[in-house]
Amino acid sequence: MSDVVAITAIAAGGEGVGRLADGRAVFVARTAPGERIRLREGVKLHKSFARGELAEIVAPGVARVTAACPHYVQDHCGGCQLQHVTYEAQLAAKQAIVGEALRRIAKLDVGDPEIVEAVEEWRYRAKVSLAVKGGRGRARAVGFHQYDRPGSVFDLKDCHIADFKLMALWRELRPRLDLLPPRLSRLTLRLDREGRRHVIAESSGEPWRNPEALRAALPDGANVICWWQPVDGAARVVAGPATGFPATAFEQVNPEMGTIARGWAVEQLGDVRGAVVWDLYGGIGDTAVALAERGAQVVSVDADEKAIDWARRREVPRPVRFIAGKAEDVLPTLPEPSAVVVHPPHAGLHWNVTLRLTGQPVNRLIYVSCDPATLARDLHRLSATYRVTAVRAFDLFPQTAHVETVVAMEAA
């Protein structure tokens, strides 16, 4: 008989956490705090922790609910991790995930931060990336990976956290997959801020020969822009209007909540009129525009040339200097700032950026993070020079274990 475990919390990846009889923490997917579960035989034991699979819910917790999306249960979809718990429990889990990382990794004496709940719990994603399982050069299954079989792909019918417009496009595309390029490896659907729909087909081998055939076959094909992206290459528009919008550039998948988080981050800088402010890892320039609206002299840096090219053509209330390049490479060329905003990728700050910020401190520093662990690591490195003045989490990703965190700092 397998062990019965009490689940006490949700870990950073969305798995429930309990304790085995020997004291080791055990991580079990699709479990909820406050419930007792039975583990399947074959628990994988590691030196200080274990991973198990749910065999039976002995006593369900009050946080458990029935998942809304059929794929979540039937296909073990790995796109979401928390559909089986109430939204209130999701928010509490994300607060605890951020707070625990700040205390354990950053060594900060802080409680769990306030969290701003999502405007919409469903249908918020403006971008979905679909995996492809191929055969004989053509797609056999297009959808998401299973959480317990990451090498597999199931056929997606509907993603409940994706915008209705994207799923309408997907319903139109599904019967026409033969019009996509052969050797398709990934398919990304994206809405831009003008409402146009983008289809980004990534493949190896020959280019997408006749993308216009797909646009002609779609009911609203005139409003669809087709991109072809070779594996390890740059994407380009191959059919439809070349609007200039960089569909492959980073942008928050939840635009409405991204605006709310960005607004709070910029407010933490206070009065920036006339001040030089760096916007590092600035993407398509949304933060730079918000800073310029407050009167700052903004220098925005991003490694994505397409994102910078589009940002340079945006309407801004005052000039913004947009630079295409890696932040760690261009820092020596930038004017001395009085404030800095950083929004690095999951890997966190490059070590050279950290050295510059600690070696030549700025008055105010804002760190916007999508990964609590790398955020906490970087805060620990910055703690000798800066003190944290405010922390707030934002739920940009309901039904998943991901969370956005904004930290305000001042020179110590």
Structural class: alpha/beta
- Give the integer mean of the pLDDT values: 95
- Helix tally equals 10
Query: What portion of residues belong to β-strands?
Result: 25-35%
Largest sheet: 8 strands, mixed
Overall 3D shape: globular
Task: Describe this entry's structure for a reader.
There is one protein chain. The protein is globular and about 65 Å long. Strand 15 and strand 16 (236-239) form a beta hairpin. It is of the alpha/beta class and 412 residues long. It is 23% helix and 30% strand. It has ten helices and 23 strands. The termini are far apart. The model has no long low-confidence stretch (mean pLDDT 95). It has helices at 70-74, 87-104, 164-173, 211-217, 255-267, 286-293, 305-312, 327-330, 351-359, 372-382; strands at residues 4-6, 9-10, 16-19, 25-28, 36-39, 44-45, 49-52, 54-59, 114-116, 127-135, 138-146, 149-155, 184-191, 197-203, 224-230, 236-239, 276-280, 297-302, 321-324, 339-342, 364-369, 386-394, 404-411. Helix 5 (255-267) crosses helix 6 (286-293). The strands form four sheets. The protein has an eight-stranded mixed beta sheet, with helices on both faces. A seven-stranded mixed beta sheet has the order 12-11-10-13-14-15-16.
